[in-house]
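Researcher: Here's the sequence for the chain we discussed earlier.
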Amino acid sequence: MPARALANVMPVDGRGGEGIRDFAVMKIGNLTIEKGILLAPMEDVTDLPFRIICKQMGADIVYTEFVNSDGLVRGNPKTRKKMAFLEEERPVGIQIYGGDVDAMEGAARAAESFNPDLIDINCGCWVRDVAMRGAGAGLLRDLPRMERLTRSVVNAVHTPVTLKTRLGWDAKSIRIVDVAKMCEQAGVQALTVHCRTRDQGHKGEVDFTWIPRIKEAVSIPVIVNGDIVTPQDVQETFATTGCDAVMIGRGAILNPWIFRQAKHFLATGELLPEPTLEERVDLFRQHLKLAIEHKGERTGVIELRKHYAGFLRGMPHVSKIRNELMQFTEAEPILQHLTRFLELYSPRASLQAETQPSPLPHQ
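Model: Thanks. This is the structure I predict for it:
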């Protein structure tokens, strides 16, 4: 369990009384999700292939990468392509970002034309190129503009609008309870809070103590994000904050099985065994196939490199095989390499081997 500031309150159960929290039901528009575990929108990560993988693993809602509102209103084809999704991904949210009210309104209409289940407003991106231009978490420095922008997006579409933000710009300017009230009054139907400030980025401890205060102030669902990386984290976050759902970001990159593992732990109190070598390689093959189908071979293979660490985590000789896979730009040598890897190192194969396995060949 990562270090975190947890709410110093008695856990609240799903019936409104004190005791052990045994369920959480989140309603957004026509969606009703119990004990929701969501995949966070992440730039250059939550593309269509990865979303399908996480959906197969049990993610209740998946989100697109950040979609630039300026690019949408200019009709940029690459920007529009980010919003494409498959029916098997539902429920799916399209996340849009920007600092211009008119552009965000136009972007919301463009997103709605794809018929997503949700449209999410990004008020949490902390990177300089976004935040310092008044978009993402930069909107936390101008709450009147954030309110105008949010209300404009809500009024522009019929699709339920949600919003993701941070606690504040920095530790001295945390106004997340006021922000939550403002979002609810503007028509936002659920609020996700990454429990760090913009100033922290991904560093320092998350502070979950704000979540019960937010829950007391608003009636819309409140979703918790930040350093939730294990099934135990998921259970403890539900139990201690009173949240309506949890959202997993970087933890899903390193472990796309987290959704299945967490659901099993919530239901039984037992931890599933770690994925076997065969399971890891099989899921990687699925991801590779999806990436090539939707992006072409060279692009699909290159963009999949960011996921090697997650798929190969815990394997023998992980650094060596990752470095070798990074050299390939075609699928066939990758598949051959993984097949050879299984022949050498899977427990089932080693039982049949008459001698010790030789090292992996250099590629």
